[in-house]
From TrEMBL:
This is Demethylmenaquinone methyltransferase. Pfam families: Ubie_methyltran. Its EC number is 2.1.1.163. It comes from Nocardia amikacinitolerans. The lineage of its organism: Bacteria, Bacillati, Actinomycetota, Actinomycetes, Mycobacteriales. Gene3D superfamilies: Vaccinia Virus protein VP39. Methyltransferase required for the conversion of demethylmenaquinol (DMKH2) to menaquinol (MKH2). It catalyses: a 2-demethylmenaquinol + S-adenosyl-L-methionine = a menaquinol + S-adenosyl-L-homocysteine + H(+). Belongs to the class I-like SAM-binding methyltransferase superfamily. MenG/UbiE family.
C-alpha cells in the first residue's frame, strides 16, 4: 500500500487525500507556481488559450481549475469560462478573481451532456485518481464538434535536458518549495507524480482511447509541458 505523508497525497491519488493536499497549498499556490517554473507558467497558460482557439460567446469548462488563474486567462478571449474543482480551498483562494466557479469532481461532472464548446484541464489530469474516467466525462459534457485541450507536465525531448530537469524536480524543487509554499511536502508529490506520468505519445493514446478524435500534441519549453488537443466527433 502506498505510504501517505502529512500534507501530501500518495501516488494512488485517493480523492480525499488529493483534495486535502490542495486545500493545504491553496493560500500560496499561484506564487509558488510562478517561482518554481521561473515565470514559465504565464507563457504556458497563454499558449493553452491559443491552443483552445476560443471565440467570444463560446462556453468553456476549465476543469481542475484550482484558483481559477487559467480560467481568467481563457476569459480574455471573450468566451464564457467556468472553473470547476473538488478542492473548496483552491476555489476559495481564487474567489477574488470573480470567475464563475462550480465545485465538482472530474470523475462525475455536475453538467449535462453536450454543454460546452471546449473543455480544458491544466496540470489537473495527473492528479485525478482515474484520468481515463475523467477524459470520458469531459467527452460527455462537450458538444459534438467541440474540443479538448489538456495542459500537463510531460517528458523533455532532449536527453541531456531531461536528465538535468529530473535532477531539478527531485532535488532542487522541494527545497525551493520549502521557501515559498504553504505546504512544501505537496511538492515532493508533484515531482513524483510528474515522473510517473505517461509521456506525450502514451497520453495521446489514452485520450484517443477515451473517445476523442484527431488527437495531437505540441511541446512547450522543450517538453516540460505538453498541450494535447482532441475533438468530439460531430
Ligand atoms: C496542480 S492544480 C492545477 C490548478 C489549475 N488548473 C492551474 O493550472 O493552476 C490541480 C488541481 O486538480 C484538482 N483535482 C484533482 N483531482 C480532481 C478531481 N477528481 N476533480 C476535480 N478537481 C480535481 C485539485 O484540487 C487541484 O486544484
Amino acid at each position: 500500500m502506498a505510504q501517505t505523508h502529512a500534507g501530501r497525497a500518495s501516488l494512488d491519488k485517493q480523492p480525499g487525500e488529493v483534495a486535502a493536499m490542495f486545500d493545504g497549498v491553496a493560500k500560496r499556490y499561484d506564487l509558488t507556481n510562478t517561482v518554481i517554473s521561473a515565470g514559465q507558467d504565464r507563457y504556458w497558460r497563454w499558449a493553452t488559450r491559443k491552443a483552445l482557439g476560443l471565440r467570444p460567446g463560446e462556453r468553456v469548462l476549465d476543469l481542475a481549475a484550482g484558483t481559477g488563474v487559467s480560467t481568467l486567462e481563457f476569459g480574455k478571449s471573450g468566451a464564457w469560462c467556468v472553473a470547476t474543482d473538488f478542492s473548496k480551498g483552491m476555489l476559495a483562494a481564487g474567489r477574488f478573481r470573480n470567475v464563475p466557479m462550480v465545485a465538482g469532481d472530474a470523475m462525475a461532472l455536475p453538467f449535462a451532456d453536450d454543454s460546452f464548446d471546449a473543455v480544458t484541464i491544466s496540470y489537473g489530469l495527473r492528479n485525478v485518481s482515474d484520468p481515463d474516467l475523467a477524459l470520458r466525462e469531459m467527452l460527455r459534457v462537450t458538444k459534438p464538434g467541440g474540443r479538448l485541450v489538456v495542459a500537463e507536465f510531460s517528458t523533455p525531448i532532449f536527453p541531456v535536458f531531461r536528465t538535468l530537469y529530473m535532477e531539478y524536480l527531485m532535488k532542487t524543487l522541494p527545497r525551493v518549495a520549502r521557501a515559498v509554499s504553504s505546504n512544501p511536502d505537496a511538492y515532493v508529490y508533484l515531482a513524483e507524480s510528474i515522473r510517473a506520468w505517461p509521456n506525450q505519445r502514451q497520453l495521446a493514446m489514452r485520450i484517443a482511447k477515451a473517445g476523442w478524435s484527431t488527437v495531437k500534441w505540441r511541446n512547450l519549453s522543450g517538453g516540460v509541458v505538453a498541450l494535447h488537443r482532441g475533438y468530439k466527433l460531430g
